[in-house]
Design a protein that fits this description.
Length: 119
């Protein structure tokens, strides 16, 4: 299955905002759900948020609820992750994966993008 590659990562100051994007490999969306994950050096990969591609139902990890917003855009064939009030602990490589469930069973990770939050 083709992968969804992430983009948009950059260096941002603490307290800042950033929007990341994952691009669909083909039209139409051919997966049930897309999720955002991150992995910091020396840490395990962490689930952040997921969205179903047809209905747009969402699910968030408690650690980012209220700060991060996931959305899908059929016109642009993308799934975005809006992040606000960024902290140095948010520094990580962010990537997307797909699943046949909204919660769990994610796989097929695409190329990630680096987000660095300076203190």
């Amino acid at each position: 299955q083709a992968q969804w590659d992430a983009s948009g990562g950059q260096l941002v100051p603490a307290g800042g905002s950033l929007t990341l994007s994952c691009a669909a490999p083909r039209r139409p969306f051919n997966v049930f759900a897309v999720g955002w994950f991150r992995q910091a050096p020396g840490k395990e990969r962490e689930f952040l948020a997921g969205v179903t591609t047809v209905v747009g139902a969402t699910h968030y990890a408690d650690s980012v609820k209220g700060r991060f917003t996931i959305s899908r855009d059929h016109a642009k064939d993308t799934v975005s992750l809006q992040m606000k009030s960024l902290k140095p602990d948010d520094t990580a490589v962010y990537s997307c994966a797909t699943s046949n469930l909204l919660q769990g069973n994610y796989g097929n990770w695409g190329q990630g993008t680096q987000v660095t939050v300076s203190s």
